[in-house]
Design brief:
The complex is a heterodimer of chains A (335) and B (540). Chain A is an alpha/beta fold. Chain A has two domains: 188 residues, Metallo-beta-lactamase, Chain A (4-Layer Sandwich); 128 residues, 3-Layer(aba) Sandwich (Rossmann fold), CATH 3.40.50.10890. The model of chain A has no long low-confidence stretch (mean pLDDT 92). The longest helix of chain B has 14 residues. In chain B, strand 15 and strand 16 form a beta hairpin. The C terminus of chain B is likely disordered. Chain B contains 19 helices and 20 strands. With 540 residues, chain B is of the alpha+beta class. Classes of the chains: A alpha/beta (335), B alpha+beta (540).
C-alpha cells in the first residue's frame, strides 16, 4: 500500500496554507502571498504583501484594503502557476467576486470552497460545481434544521412587511450585512417595486461599489444627518451593528427586521429582539452541503467553520471521510 | 387553525403591546365563538393536558426525518424547542399557507386532538406524523406547541383581558375574575363571558391575585410612613384560601389548585365561617420560624404525601389579606379595614392559620434597619402596602411594593467556556459570566463549580453547538444561557474591566427559565459596593 500523498492544504498559525504552492488561503495574519476567496472581513485581512483574488471582487477588495494594497485580479477559470501547483478560481455564489479555489498538484486536486451558497443570486455568478479529491467546505449552517425557503418567497415577505408598516405609518428598518446581503436584497426587490430605499452609510459605500460594476439594484439614497427626512413608510437598510444605537432615533416608530439564515430559528430572532426575521442566507444550507459533497466526488471532506463537528460525524456515518479543521473564520450573518 | 396560526405569527412578530392587543381583538371579533374561547384559553397561558410525552414525539421524529438520534439531539439543542425542531425537520421550507384548509381551532382541538388521548399509540403516531407531513410550517409548529405545552408568545393574561374588554365592553377586573378557576372552553363559555351579570356559580373560583411591583430606590419617595403598612416578604407559595359552601380550596398564584398538597391548611380552614377568602403565603414553618423555600420544595415535589414528609416539612398559611367575608367581596374596601377584619377573624383560629405580622418600625429609617435583618429571618425583604388601597388585579403599580434585599446572588450570562482539568478535560466546565452594561455583557466572574454532572454534560453539548468563536481552547458562546451565581464578598477593583472583584463566585443554578435580557446589570452589582445612604454600614 502506498503512503497517502502529503496534504495540499494544512492549517498553520497564519491560516490555511498550501506548502507545495507556498501560499496561504484567506490567512488571518499578514503573509507573503494570499489567495482570497472573498472580501468579508474574516477572510480578507490587511497587512499582507500580495493578494490574489477573483476579478469581479477586485473593486470591493481594493475598497476594503485601502490604497496601500493593489490586489491582483484573476479571471474565473484562468489557470495560474503558484510554486509547484496550478491554481484557478471558480464562482462560489456567496457574494460578488467570491470564489472557490482549485489547487492541482501531482495529480491531486483540492478545492477550498470559501463561503458559498447554491441559491441563485442576481448580484454574483452562480456556484460552479467542481470535481476534486479533497473538498474543504464551510459548515456555518450544518444542521438539518437549516433549510432555505425559496428566495422569491422571502423577498415577497420583506415587501409585504414593508407595505404593512407603511399602512401603519411606520418606517421599516431592515438589518442586513453591509457587504453582499444588502445588495442582494436591493437587487431582488426590483421584482416588486422601483421605489427608492434609504441606506446606512456603511451599506451605501458598498452599494456604490456594486453599482459601479453594473449590478442592477433599486435606486437608493443615503440616510443623512442634515435635513429632516420623513421616514414613515420608507424602507431603510442598515448593518446589524446599527441596531440599538442613537442613529436609529431619527426613524421614530419603526418595525425592525433582520435578514439572516439564523432567522430560521425563532429563538435566535427573539433573543435579538427583532420584530421580524427573514430567512435569507448567503451560506449553503444543510441539503446544499450534502448535495455539493456528493457532486464533487471527493473522497475526503474537511470542514472549516460552523457546525463542523456535527457535519463531519454525519458524513462519516454516511461513509464519506470527513474531519474538522480549526480555523479562525467567523460568520458575518451573526453580526 | 390557519387563522389562529396567522394570529400567532402576528403576536410573535411585534413587541408593541398595542399591536398585540389589536391583533387579538380582531381575532376575537371575527372568529367563531368556540374558537375565540379556545384562543382565550390558550393565549392566557393554559395548556391542554399532555397526553404524548416529548420522548415519544422525539422517537417518531427520528423515523420521520430519517436522521440519527444524535443529530436530532444536536438540532434540538441548537433550536431549544421541541415543537419548533419537529416543524423545522418535517414541514419543509415553504411558508406559504394560502390554499390550505382552514379547519376551525375548536374542531382541531375537540375533534382531532382530544380524542387521540384514548387512542392506541400506533394510531396516535400515524395521525400525528401524518399531520407533520401535511401541514404547512406555521400550522405544524402550532400543532406541536399545542401537543407539548404552552405557546409562550409574549402575551400575558393581562393583555388577553385587555383585548377581551375591548371586544365585550366588560370591565377588565370583572373579566379577569371570569377567567379564573376551571372553565370549559366553548361557545357557551364565550357567551357567558359577554354576559352583563357575572355568571359566577362555582364556589371554588378564586379572585385574580393582586401583584406587587419591585421598589426601585428608597421608600421615602412613597411619602408618609404612616400611610403604609409593612410586612415581611415571605419566601413561600402565594396562595388564596377559599372557604365557601362548606368546602375549602387552596389556589396558587399560577392558578393551580394546590388543595391536595396542603391538607393541614385545608383542615384548619374548616374552622373558618363560610364565605371567607384569604390571600396569603404557604410557608414551611418549624420552631416558630419560617424555613428555607428549598424545604417547602421537597414537599411540592412529592407525588404522595407521606406521614414522614408531613412531619419533616410542617406548613403554615400566613394570611395577609381578607378578600371576602360573609360572602361579600371586600376588595374595594381600603386595606386598613380589610386588615382589621382579618385580625379579628383569625384571633382564635388554628395555629396553622396566622396573620402575617406587621413590621412596626415607625420611620422609613428604622424600617430600613429592620429590613437589614431579612437574611437572618429567612425572608426576602419587606412588602409595603398603601393602607388606603383597594385590592387590585394583576400588577398595577402604586399601591403594593416589594422592597427586596440586595442580592448576595445575581443572574449572569455565560459568555466564554473552556475545558476543565484532569477527568473533566474533555468537557467544557470552566465558565466566564457577564452582566449587562448598556447592551454589552461585561465579564464579572469565572466559576467552575455548582452544577450537577448531568447539567455539566448538557451544558457541554450546548456549548459545542453554540460556539461563536474559538480562541485556542476558549470558546465564546451565544450569550443566551443565564445562571444564578452566589459570592462571598464584593470589592472595587481597578484590575477588572467590570471595576469589581467577586470573592468565591459559584453557580447556584442554571436559570433555564430566564432569557439573557433579564440577567443582572453591572449597575446592580456596583450598587452593592456603596451602601445606600440610610442603610447601616455593617450590613455587609
Amino acid at each position: 500500500m502506498s503512503a497517502a500523498p502529503p496534504p495540499l492544504v494544512t492549517v498553520t498559525e497564519n491560516g490555511l496554507y498550501c506548502p507545495a504552492g507556498r501560499f496561504h488561503i484567506d490567512p488571518w495574519r499578514p503573509v507573503e502571498t494570499a489567495v482570497i476567496t472573498h472580501a468579508h472581513g474574516d477572510h480578507l485581512r490587511q497587512g499582507g504583501t500580495r493578494y490574489l483574488l477573483a476579478e469581479p471582487g477586485l473593486a470591493i477588495a481594493s475598497h476594503r484594503l485601502g490604497a496601500d494594497h493593489q490586489p491582483t485580479p484573476v479571471k474565473y477559470g484562468e489557470q495560474l502557476q503558484l510554486g509547484a501547483t496550478t491554481i484557478s478560481l471558480h464562482p462560489a455564489g456567496h457574494i460578488l467576486g467570491s470564489a472557490q479555489l482549485r489547487i492541482e498538484h501531482e495529480g491531486q486536486v483540492w478545492v477550498v470552497s470559501g463561503d458559498y451558497k447554491r441559491q441563485p443570486d442576481p448580484t454574483c455568478a452562480p456556484f460552479e460545481p467542481l470535481t476534486c479529491d479533497v473538498f474543504i467546505s464551510e459548515a456555518t449552517f450544518a444542521l438539518p434544521v437549516y433549510q432555505w425557503q425559496p428566495t422569491g418567497e422571502v423577498i415577497e415577505e420583506i415587501f409585504h412587511w414593508w407595505r404593512a408598516n407603511r399602512e401603519r405609518g411606520l418606517a421599516s428598518v431592515l438589518f442586513c450585512y453591509a457587504l453582499g446581503k444588502a445588495q442582494r436584497v436591493l437587487a431582488e426587490l426590483r421584482a416588486f417595486t422601483d421605489e427608492t430605499v434609504y441606506l446606512h452609510g456603511a451599506v451605501n459605500v458598498l452599494t456604490d461599489v456594486y453599482r459601479q460594476q453594473d449590478i442592477e439594484m433599486l435606486p437608493t439614497m443615503p440616510v443623512t444627518g442634515e435635513k429632516k427626512t420623513d421616514y414613515r413608510g420608507a424602507l431603510i437598510i442598515a448593518p446589524p451593528s446599527a441596531a440599538g444605537t442613537p442613529w436609529m432615533r431619527r426613524f421614530g416608530d419603526h418595525s425592525s427586521g433582520f435578514c439572516s439564515g439564523w432567522m430560521r430559528v425563532r429563538g435566535n430572532r427573539r433573543r435579538r429582539g427583532y420584530d421580524r426575521g427573514f430567512v435569507l442566507s448567503d451560506h449553503v444550507d444543510w441539503p446544499g452541503l450534502i448535495d455539493t459533497f456528493k457532486s464533487t466526488g471527493a473522497s475526503k471532506i474537511l470542514l472549516t467553520h460552523g457546525y463542523s463537528d456535527a457535519l463531519a460525524r454525519y458524513m462519516n456515518e454516511l461513509g464519506l471521510s470527513a474531519g474538522a479543521l480549526q480555523t479562525a473564520y467567523g460568520d458575518e450573518e451573526q453580526q | 387553525m390557519r387563522t389562529f396560526a396567522a394570529l400567532y405569527e402576528e403576536l410573535d412578530t411585534t413587541q408593541s403591546t398595542n399591536l398585540k392587543v389589536a391583533a387579538m381583538s380582531r381575532y376575537f371579533r371575527e372568529a367563531p365563538p368556540a374558537d375565540a374561547a379556545w384562543a382565550t384559553y390558550i393565549l392566557s397561558g393554559r395548556r391542554l393536558k399532555r397526553f404524548i410525552g416529548p420522548a415519544l414525539l422525539k422517537r417518531w421524529l427520528i423515523d420521520e426525518a430519517a436522521l440519527p438520534e444524535w443529530l436530532i439531539d444536536e438540532s434540538y439543542n441548537s433550536v431549544g424547542d421541541l415543537a419548533e425542531t419537529i416543524a423545522l425537520l418535517t414541514a419543509g421550507t415553504a411558508h406559504g399557507e394560502a390554499g390550505t384548509d382552514d379547519i376551525a381551532l375548536a374542531d382541531w382541538i375537540e375533534d382531532r386532538l382530544l380524542p387521540l388521548r384514548e387512542a392506541e399509540e400506533d394510531v396516535q403516531r400515524q395521525t400525528i406524523t401524518g399531520w407533520w407531513r401535511e401541514l404547512p410550517y406555521r400550522q405544524c409548529f402550532l400543532l406541536n406547541k399545542l401537543l407539548t405545552g404552552e405557546l409562550r408568545v409574549g402575551v400575558s393574561q393581562l393583555l388577553v383581558t385587555r383585548a377581551l374588554a375591548d371586544v365585550t365592553g366588560i370591565e377588565r377586573t370583572e373579566l379577569a375574575g371570569r377567567l379564573m378557576g376551571d372553565w370549559q372552553p366553548g361557545a357557551l363559555f364565550w357567551q357567558a363571558l359577554h354576559a352583563a351579570e357575572s355568571p359566577r356559580t362555582d364556589p371554588a373560583v378564586p379572585y385574580p391575585f393582586f401583584l406587587a411591583s419591585p421598589l426601585e430606590g428608597e421608600p421615602g419617595q412613597l411619602g408618609d410612613r404612616d400611610a403604609w403598612q409593612a410586612e415581611w416578604k415571605w419566601d413561600g407559595i402565594r396562595g388564596q384560601l377559599i372557604r365557601r359552601a362548606s368546602e375549602c380550596h387552596l389556589w396558587s398564584r399560577g392558578e393551580e389548585r394546590i388543595t391536595d398538597r396542603f391538607p393541614e391548611i385545608v383542615d384548619a380552614a374548616g374552622t373558618l365561617p363560610d364565605g371567607v377568602v384569604l390571600d396569603g403565603e404557604v410557608v414551611a414553618w418549624k420552631d416558630g420560624r419560617i424555613q428555607p423555600f428549598a424545604l417547602l420544595q421537597q414537599r411540592i415535589g412529592r407525588k404522595k404525601l407521606t406521614a414522614a414528609i408531613l412531619a419533616t416539612v410542617p406548613v403554615q398559611f400566613l394570611a395577609y389579606d381578607l378578600l371576602e367575608f360573609n360572602g361579600e367581596d371586600l376588595r374595594a374596601a381600603p386595606l386598613r379595614e380589610r386588615r382589621a377584619h382579618l385580625e379579628k377573624l383569625l384571633t382564635n383560629a388554628s395555629p396553622i392559620l396566622q396573620v402575617s405580622p406587621l413590621v412596626t418600625a415607625p420611620s422609613w429609617e428604622e424600617l430600613a434597619l429592620a429590613r437589614a435583618d431579612s437574611r437572618q429571618r429567612n425572608v426576602e425583604g419587606l412588602m409595603l402596602k398603601a393602607l388606603d388601597s383597594s385590592y387590585g388585579t394583576g400588577r398595577q403599580r402604586g399601591a403594593w411594593w416589594k422592597w427586596k434585599i440586595e442580592p448576595h446572588s445575581f443572574d449572569a450570562v455565560m459568555i466564554y467556556a473552556q475545558p476543565g482539568q484532569g477527568r473533566r478535560s474533555n468537557l467544557y466546565t470552566d465558565y466566564t459570566f457577564g452582566v449587562w452594561r448598556d447592551r454589552e455583557l461585561v465579564p464579572v466572574a469565572k466559576a467552575y463549580s455548582g452544577l450537577s454532572n448531568p447539567e455539566v454534560e448538557q451544558l457541554d453539548r450546548w456549548i459545542r453547538a453554540h460556539t461563536v468563536e474559538k480562541f485556542g481552547p476558549v470558546r465564546s458562546v451565544e450569550p443566551s444561557q443565564v445562571f444564578e451565581l452566589a459570592y462571598e464578598g464584593i470589592a472595587a477593583s481597578g484590575r477588572h474591566k467590570s471595576g469589581i472583584a467577586l470573592r468565591f463566585p459559584r453557580i447556584l443554578r442554571w436559570r433555564t427559565d430566564k432569557p439573557a435580557s433579564e440577567a443582572d446589570t453591572l449597575a446592580n452589582l456596583q450598587a452593592v459596593l456603596t451602601p445606600a445612604p440610610d442603610a447601616p454600614a455593617n450590613i455587609r
